[in-house]
Amino acid sequence: MNCSLSNAMSARALLYSLSLTPKAPPDISARRKIPGSDSKPRCPSPFLIRVRFSSSSQEQRYSVFRVSARRSSGKVWADVKSETYDISDSVPDSVKFEEALDGVVLGEEEKLESSVSWREQFPKRWVIVVLCFSAFLLCNMDRVNMSIAILPMSAEYNWNPATVGLIQSSFFWGYLLTQVAGGIWADTVGGKAVLGFGVVWWSIATVLTPIAAKLGLPFLLVVRAFMGIGEGVAMPAMNNILSRWIPVAERSRSLALVYSGMYLGSVTGLAFSPFLIHQYGWPSVFYSFGSLGTVWVAVWLSKAHSSPLEDPELRPEEKKLILSNSVSNEPVKTIPWRLILSKAPVWALIVSHFCHNWGTFILLTWMPTYYNQVLKFDLTESGLFCVLPWLTMAFSANLGGWIADTLVSRGLSVTTVRKIMQTIGFLGPAFFLTQLSHVNSPQMAVLCMACSQGTDAFSQSGLYSNHQDIAPRYSGVLLGLSNTAGVLAGVLGTAATGYILQHG
């Protein structure tokens, strides 16, 4: 009789200890007198109670409670000790409290999990990355269409190569003006507003390009410069918003995906522009591409936020992950210019960006003309063969990002990883581009272009990731500084190429 009372009391103490109401731990050693008995019978050896606390698709965790009872001076104590182990697949028959606990403890959690759709479970930080990817897709679609449309336009308006070079380089005039300003703006007010403004601005300028061309060369130059103003704020704004949303371990992959949007934008623009020009005339390229910006802006305004702290729909566990692996998300009020410009890594980035863009922008603007005039491809072939290098860049950028993040996660220093990636991004294009002067067949020329652009894309995990490494709070300003030097390379290199072509 006493043993059964002891066992009942122990089970009662156990159930009380499993109460869902948050309280201080109850006194397990509850005491109760056993009436009508002066003897001291001994209970059998301790018995086991297995209780499931959590479960997953393949694993269920149980705690084994060793419950023993002892009697002293007419009182009984229940001692409960637990030890945890994992059980896979099968559930023992000895589980007695499983159904009750599932209904109380686990049922509510499982209902909450099942009520959350896969869209809500998708990480919000990667929604931001995909939206930035889409913005850069539109960015290069609107930029690269001029390199195809310039061929029929120059024939219609009788522009010589020097004029074509001037038109191509006019984009960089506005692009140069807004690099640092866009970085300051993004760091102080947030990347959401700045990137949204940029897309609206350059989309309007794209739509106005055919009208300006008909009005005259000065109007066209102004509109192209205005387009550069809109696209000039995009990179600093993107860098700012990703520095607040993306943990360090995901930085290379996220940036590689965003910048691959630029490459795929070039692919899309170069692939569809010849078809649109052939079917509907060259103005259709600017009207159709420019109108896509309105769709992107509508989604951006409803889904994006400048930082995780501003997003009311962000899941708590993702917010904790982001904030525990990032710098302060507070807006920047002052820019320490003297401190920034006194650092050698900053100047290393500036020089690297200039050298990188010297080759990249020349290829971006003059590759279709090279294919058409040197390799003797027609307009459609020029556009199609221009696609291959940019497809190669999209693939190799994401490959380089995965390699870089893997190396960082395995313990290699971030500095070493950035140097490795940038070395590939410089030496690879240098080798393949120098081979063009020795190549006789168009197929080999296209292959050299593709290999050059493919290795160039490793820079996304090199210099383009390094801004957030060395100055995460001022990443927008820092990218504005280095990209200003890069834009200067684009202005000088693009215009100089047209001058060289005209003078043999």
Automatic annotation (TrEMBL):
Family note: Belongs to the major facilitator superfamily. Sodium/anion cotransporter (TC 2.A.1.14) family.
Top-level lineage group: Eukaryota
Gene3D superfamilies hit by this protein: MFS general substrate transporter like domains
Main location: membrane
GO molecular function, one term: phosphate transmembrane transporter activity
Chain ranges passing through the membrane: 126-146, 166-186, 193-213, 219-242, 254-276, 282-301, 346-367, 387-408, 477-501
One GO cellular component, as annotated: chloroplast
Origin species: Carpinus fangiana
PROSITE patterns: MFS
Subcellular location field: Membrane; Plastid, Chloroplast
Name assigned to this protein: Major facilitator superfamily (MFS) profile domain-containing protein
Record's keyword terms, sorted: Chloroplast, Membrane, Plastid, Transit peptide, Transmembrane, Transmembrane helix
Keyword Transmembrane helix in annotation: yes
